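pasting input
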Amino acid sequence: MAEDLLRMEGIVKIYSNGVVANNGVDFSVKAGEIHALVGENGAGKTTLMKILFGIEEATSGNLLLNGLRETIKSPIDAIQKGLGMVHQHFMLIESMTVAENIVLGMEPETGLLLNQKKILSDARNIIEKYNFPINPQDRIRDLPTGTRQKVEILKALFRNARILILDEPTSVLTPQETTELFEQLKTLKNLGHTIIFISHKLNEIKEICDRITIMRNAATVGVYEVAKISQQEISSLMVGKDIDLNLNKTPARPGETALRVRDLVVTDINKRRLLESVSFRLRRGEILGIVGVEGNGQRELVESITGLRKPEGGKVELWGKDLTSLSIKGIRRLGLAHIPQDRMSKGAALTSSIKENLISVAYDSPELSRGPLLNLKKIDRWCRDLIRDYQIKASSPEVPVKMLSGGNIQKVVVAREFSGDLGCIIADQPTRGIDVGAASFIHHKLLALRDSGAAILLISADLSEVMELSDSLLVMFGGRLAAYFESLSSVTEEELGLYMLGLKRQSDEEIKRCSA
Amino acid sequence: MKDPGQNKISLENRFEALRFFCAIGIAILLSFVIIILVSREPFTALRNLFLGPLSSMRRFGNVVELAITLTFSGLAVAVMFSANQFNMGAEGSFYAAGAVAAMTALGLPLPPVIHPLFAILLGGLTGAVICAIPALLKAKWGASELVSSLMLNYVFFYFTRYFCNTVFKDPDSGYVSTYLLPLTAKLPRIIGGTRIHLGLFIVIAVTLLTVIFIKRTRWGYALIQTGRSPGFAGYSGINTSWVLIYSQLLGGFIAGVGGSVEVLGMYDRFQWQNLPGYGFDGVIVAILARNRPAWVPVAAFLLSYIRIGADRMSTATDVTSEMIAIIQGIIIMLVAAQAFMSRQRQKMLIKEIRSHG
Amino acid sequence: MADIFHYIFAVDFAYSALRVTTPILFAAIASVVAERSGASNIALEGIMLFAALFGAIGSGLTGSLLWGFLAALGGGLVIALLLAYFGLFLKTDIILAGIALNTLATGGTVFLMFAIIGDKGSTTSLISRSFPRIDIPLIRSIPVLGPIISGQNTLTYLAFITVFLVWALLFKTRLGLRMRAVGENAEAAASVGISIKRTKFTALIISGLLAATGGAFLSMGYMSGFTRNMVSGRGFIALAAAAMGQLSPLPTLLASLVFGFFDALSNILAAMRIPDEFVKIIPYLATVAGLVIFSALQVWRLKGKRAEALKAQGKEEKSGA
């Protein structure tokens, strides 16, 4: 094959908080291929791509495009050099239309004013050229996730991107939407585009990628032809050591009902119903999984149970007591723990120390305080114990949490939430975006707590995580329960996908079994 | 890789200190430039500005007297800002509390000791109420506390001034003021040759109590966490609306005590016809002290020193004391500037990481 | 009491309400521009102060209205540039920077006034120029409305034109589209090559020039000359007006008019035998009241919408079943 289209050599990046995200990374891509970039979260993939796209500046290292030394100073520079990026979190202005989003940054003008007609026709042309089913006059906020992603891809194509970077594009999609995306990517490849595909889903990589670069611990481990390497080999190269992925799960022994949700209704201010009479029960000693495409009511469900939001109708009962009229403190006192989805703005206060983060739930308990005063000695001992037990890697309890890696921050959250007298745990995306080691640690903890009689509700976008951990499973679609599986032995991911997309729905009787 | 976090912390502290002194250095340099530009006697002006406060016991006394006042307002603002509320109500609290203390002194005949204590308490409560209103408006309806507190400052200022200028006005005084404050209510002077008054002990006590409140109590913990991350605090079960209110109540109370102590310690009559500006000075002090109560007295002393120096300069030379407002503005912005000297910080960091492998 | 109503419904009153609305309107529109791009301009007060001082001194020293106006714009621009530099480049919290600049301007104007003309109170020793009033021939002869609208200061007309211009800027131009994009989702705007700093910088400069024009009106129209602290909280009243106008130009104009009304009311009552304190309190009290009522209405409307949604769905369910 010809010369590399793109080459990055010896890339080093040290962030201002001291994190070394890239430490001498080499990466190259050939024209017309779909190239996978894999690695654990925190391995440095995203940083590398941010440097490539001019969002971050490398501390040192070289970049070659078509064999020529280049520096990419900004995203616009990257765009002009033929790069396009589809971010994991979409970069769209929600109040504006599809057309406005597509042309943003290179808007046509007539005189001093915007040329509204040309904005629309430009958008129409590009949509028709690639045959995407989108109306350019729709506002982004009214569009589903899959369509938003298409707008993102169109944005890059409109800017004549020859190299497309897709950052974990399938993490927000259903299996069916993923298939559709892959068809489009293959078409793009045939049209001569080069694609960098960031993922940690190995089966997807096997399906559409030509070559693969594996990163670990801020450096490149190797580059391989996808056809010549097995998923097991990729996995062990990514992790570097064999982590005990086998959970040794024993069958659940469900006990009495802990949490009961009855006819829960949540609406938003625009008359939209986000949750529609959701009912189920959760027993001690079981893990009940909830899956669904993001935005189908899972967030509202969790917020209603944990007291972050007052539902418009229905009840949530823990040990028979209604939670909807209690404060968050009151709910937590009943023994409810909550690992929130949003680690950075809810789960942890980044500028506060590990210690301050660990005590935020229990600081006013008789154990840690005396009257109005904090018992600093006991707090210190309690924190040191938790840091040790949960293997949080930090030199002292006084270190601000923002200095820690994602996995260690999540361990702080988990340590705090699991430290009280537990009856019921709401675990919302407990391992999203953290390294395999920390994730496995948390998985084992969850199972141990289940075996000691805790009732656990597990909400996750990672199907394999839910399938591995859960004893029974609920699928949500459009704010309603779409399916209930009492055991997971006969369920496949493909089948779940049909329910998640709303293409299939169990009968009301079948679903009702979950609240029996 | 030994103790990476520890190194980062000490590095962070060292860097903050460095940045603070650089900001002060730039400000001093700037005042040099301004004075040399506008003055016909720049060296006299500079000498008075930087050494004037040390030229006599009385003047150094002035520094301490003003530092007492600024410590009160600095603590008040530091507590309120710690909850991440841009509440400027300390200004109104200071004035209104001073007026209420004066009216209490004039209107309620009480025995010594109890008289000032009661007046200060009433002043403190006045301040608390004034600062809590913007927080309530914010918590209940989301009205911007910055705007509402600034507007309410004027409202309470005019409202209390009305009573001082009518009911309690002394028609025989040569200027607009209240009657003479009774001696039973006044705070006695404690150091001869200066006007330093008993308020010095009150401010030391209030500072210690505030430090303990923030660092050692459950409420202080809840307050700091709410200020840093309301999402985190609320999710953890902290009642953030209540935190918002009690933090502003407390800050307002401290400002109110400050205003009362100022009036009872420094004046024979209540004579403020305009907002005194001490509440806004509190913002400067709090920012210099990075909202840490233990640092507030230091910052207050610094600001007070430079203010008295500026007054000396203004009486002795042709440079007005208002020049200092420019210097203050620049210092605050530099001290609060995240990216100020960030390149030095990055260099220090990279060196640190490289040397530790 | 009857007297008051007599005054309020007089043509003079409406005329003076428009006049006192002018500086608030300029500043409120300035806030809209800044806030839409995601950069809060709390320094409006300081910008107006500097502009008012520079306008008075500039026109006084040169004897030229144009130079005075340019000096005013330059003075306001100094503060706006400082705000932009610290807020955007040195990453000072932009609210803190605004607060700092307001205190800087309060003392700084007095310092400069003394340094330049040797007076600490006002610039009365200088004869500064003012913007002329304009009689509009046809409109002047309309009964009632004519005398209200015609004969206002040049800058008053400019203020109302500015509302329209800013609307066009925000919604009809490339710069406006980019400012709104940056204000709504800065990261997304940056990802298509829009410079966040440059966009916010531009917005702050435009905002500064608008507020400076408001400041110029104070010393070169509303009054003739500068007196210390002459802005007296108008910058903050404008912030409230912009918030009430939900950062849209036309509603902001309406909110500014409301505050102008109360300002004018306070001016009228000053002529009657009501204690000075209670007269001066009016605009500030009105601002707090306005802010609270508006915010409360908003909360209430959201709640109402939610209840309505529930009801609507209830109906759907019934009809479905």
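fyi Chain A has a mean pLDDT of 87.
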